[in-house]
């Protein structure tokens, strides 16, 4: 072999060493990256409750909020039923409030309640991924897409045959269920007629009024307490990522962290909607009959509809869990996010 041949052979061997070294490095790094991706993906699946469920709950006279450590803090202007007796709660991933009650979902899929309730059956619930509550009843969504109900007053909720549900919402006499295909069902025939033509829905919210968020960021709404002007305003909304309904008010959270509103608060003033629409850096909203609350990205709360001396109480909220809250768009039964609303 001449000198040139030896040089070529050395170059080939060197190239092979470089290639083999590169393959060796990739073989080490790539599995780690894949494992990390699986951990992230698995983390999303396991933490979807934290990512998608309400961290603030608003009743008629009280508000509860989920702090970053899984505990719950509450304030109340007139509470005589123990609605904010939540100081011992821990490992909470969702909170909801009604007129006289508060409910919390724990990270292990069990449920706690407080207030004027006798929801003894909720203590036996397991594998729950979302909850809601009214003065009369509580409802829970299970991870397999079925629904359970705890009845505190005389009611009839035929949900035994419901399947493939990804979100639930309840008012006093009706439970609404959002299905994974974007349609909505209800336990009352009259309510079913309202929502039977709704499609592409990713989130629902109800009180006396009912609102649905569509996958394109537009909104559909119904409510005998909503004026035609309010409904026309809602029809014009775009770029919405979360909605919240009370008896006479509909709120919409936009992707830029601002809020739009239509209607009015009970015992409120004409300035309430204007004040709500001045909020910025909002990551979640909740409308009550007498006041509305917004969760800011820094973990503080803003409120509208209360007298000034009541609003001062909300300055005590400093560490509310404001992370990973694009919207309340629903979860498939396999714990997969349907829509992040962004």
From TrEMBL:
UniProt key word Nucleus: no
Pfam families linked to this entry: RCC1_2 (PF13540)
Transmembrane segments: 12-30
Gene3D superfamilies: Regulator of chromosome condensation 1/beta-lactamase-inhibitor protein II
PROSITE patterns to which the protein is assigned, alphabetical: RCC1_2
Keyword annotations from UniProtKB, A to Z: Membrane, Transmembrane, Transmembrane helix
KW Transmembrane helix (keyword) present: yes
Protein known as: Regulator of chromosome condensation (RCC1) repeat-containing protein
